[in-house]
Amino acid sequence: MAISTYSNLQTAIATWLNRSDLTSVIPDFITLAEERISRDIRARRQVVNTTLTTTANVQSVTLPNDFLEAENITLVGTNPPGAMSVITPEIMDRRFPAGEFTGKPVVYCFLGNTIQFGPTPDAAYSVLMDYYQRLDIASTTTNWLLTAHPSLYLNACIVEGCSYLMDLDKGQAYDARYRQAVAEFMNTDDASVRSGSAMRVRSL
Prior knowledge:
Blueprint: H1 6-17, H2 26-40, E1 47-53, E2 60-62, E3 67-76, E4 82-83, E5 85-86, H3 89-95, E6 102-103, E7 107-111, E8 114-118, E9 120-121, E10 126-133, H4 137-140, H5 144-148, H6 150-165, H7 168-193
Parallel strand pairs: 5-7, 6-9
Antiparallel strand pairs: 1-10, 2-8, 3-4, 3-10, 7-8
Helix pairs in contact: 1-6, 2-6, 6-7
C-alpha cells in the first residue's frame, strides 16, 4: 500500500503495530511525530514564503499559524528594498520602545506569536518572509515529506505508538530506524542545495 495521505498513514501505523484498537489515538501519534520531526529537520522544501503587511503605528504583526522558523525577511515595495536585521526582544525594548519611534522598519524580533518591528512602522509596509513551515498533515491531507519519504514519517509515528503501548524494545528499534532516516534525508537535502555544475575559473 502506498503511504501518501493522512488516511494511508493511519492505516499503515495500525498495520505495522499489528493493532486494530488504536483508531482513536493514532492521530495523537502523528501529531507527536510531527512535533519531533519539526525539531529534527530543516529542509529546502520546508521553506515557503508569505507577505506580511504592517499597520501604521502598530509595532507587531501576527505570524502565520504554520510558522516554525524564519529563513529570510525583506522589506519590499520601498526604495531601496533590503533584508532586515534580527535583534533580541531586549534590544528592541531599549532601542525602539513601542510607540516612541516611528519610521521605515529596519530591524525585527520575534515575541510570542508575533514579529515586532523597529522602529514602529509609520505606514503600511510589505514584508516578504521566507520561513520554515510546520508540518500538519491532518489539515493538509498530504505533504511533500510524506510523499517523498514515507519511511521517515512512519518510523516516527511507530516510535510514538510503541511509547503508548509501553513496548520499549520495539520502540528503540524504530527510534534507531527513524534517526537513520533523518540523517540520510538531511545528507541528501544538503547535497541537493549544492547540486549543479562545479564552479570554474574562466580564463580571460
